[in-house]
Amino acid sequence: MIHVKFFASVRERIGVGEIFLPVPKGGVTVAEVLALAEGEAGVALQDAHLLAAVNLQHASFAGVVHDGDEVAFFPPVTGG
């Protein structure tokens, strides 16, 4: 299983803070995890500007995700 977390406005938009997804055979990319999560939640996030992390490390959407990984999606943040 992949533990998928959503933060800030992404969490508000999708309506939940986390979901668990089965891992398709051969693994998946971060982009594919996002598509699976959208299907599970019935919400489109592709048009949102998102960042991703895998196991607490920033990750590209082309990065590979494996069984047991945690994937987080969140908006870019700025600070002062």
In short:
By secondary structure, this protein is of the alpha+beta class. Helix content is 24%, strand content 31%.
Written description of the protein model:
The protein has 80 residues and is an alpha+beta fold. 24% of the residues lie in helices and 31% in strands. Strand 4 (51-54) and strand 5 (57-59) form a beta hairpin. The chain is globular, with a radius of gyration of 12 Å. The mean pLDDT is 90.
Low-pLDDT residue spans: none
Number of strands: 7
Strand order of the largest sheet: 2-1-7-4-5
Write down the overall geometry: globular
The biggest beta sheet reads: 5 strands, mixed
What is the string of helix and strand elements? EHEEHEEEE
Tally of helical segments: 2
Taking all Cα atoms into account, the compactness measure Rg is 12 Å
Please name the defining characteristics of this protein.
alpha+beta; 80 residues; five-stranded mixed β-sheet; 24% helix; two-stranded antiparallel ribbon; globular; 2 helices
What's the arrangement of secondary structure elements?
Layout: E1 2-6, H1 8-14, E2 18-21, E3 28-29, H2 30-41, E4 51-54, E5 57-59, E6 64-65, E7 70-74
Parallel strand pairs: 1-7
Antiparallel strand pairs: 1-2, 3-6, 4-5, 4-7
